[in-house]
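EI: anyone free to look at a 166-residue chain?
SC: sure, send it
EI:
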Amino acid sequence: MEVYVLDSNFFIQAHRVSYPLDIAFSFWNKVKQLADEGRIISIDKVKNELYDKNDALEAWCKDNLPENFFKDTSHVMAAYGQVSAWAISRNGHYLPNALNEFLDADEADAFLIAYALADNSNRIIVTHEISNPNQRNKIKIPEPCNALGVVFCTTIDMFRRLGETF
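SC: here you go
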């Protein structure tokens, strides 16, 4: 079964821009439903990024997402090695700060890609990042995904692929 692995920006952009918690109840109810069904998940590094603000989004996640929603990434180190090797191979293109940020153990992006890569036929990343292969100061999720054959999509694409409405 395909499962969608959510980037931090899925939650942050929804909360701050598109679907505020105090207005878009149907969106957040749908997120809760899909999480309860195991159709959407995320990873421990995303949890760390979301749980550092002590805000309404963090409270919503704690109150509404299943306990096993955020998956442990310690078992995907072989795939993380592939993602890291790709990034290092691009050191002639990306600036050192971009590589350092991407490979920082506290940053979610490389681990998110590794988690999806570890079960590539069943895991799809959901992100709002847009491919920009010429950008040198930041590694965007689509670039390593495209290079490593990891499928990714936007929030709306995910809902369409799932056949869900809200």
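EI: The chain has a mean pLDDT of 97.
SC: 👍
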